Amino acid sequence: MLKIGCEHTYKYLLYYGTVKGGCLIRYDNEKGKGDHKHLGVKERTYEFKSLRRLIEDFRRDVREESSI
Predict the structure, then answer these.
(1) Per residue in 45-64, pLDDT tens?
(2) Which one of 12, 18, 31, 41 is CB 3.0 to 4.6 Å from 22, fit for a cystine?
(3) Residues 33-40: contacts with CB within 8 Å, 24+ apart?
């Protein structure tokens, strides 16, 4: 279940995908859904802690995806 709304004032979208536009990983906080991430076709709530942590978590997921 996705949490609606955000507890912070940041708007973000981090994207990692294929050359042809296929989304592999995306972190965002679109209006009405709040903080969440997409891992392939799965969508999960993301617990935003800080901008630094957001980037670290995104990079970790990209590294894990790239190593497959």
Answers:
(1) 999 999 999 999 999 999 99
(2) 18
(3) 33/2, 33/4, 34/2, 34/3, 34/4, 34/5, 34/6, 35/3, 35/6, 36/2, 36/3, 37/61
Torsion from C-alpha of 58, 37, 10, 62, nearest 10 degrees: 10
| Start-to-end C-alpha separation, the chain | 27
* Percent of the chain residues topping a pLDDT of 70: 91
DSSP code for 52: H
pTM for this prediction = 0.85
Write the burial class of residue 31 (CB in 10 Å: 0-12 exposed, 13-18 middle, 19+ buried): exposed
CA pair distance 31, 16, nearest whole angstrom: 21
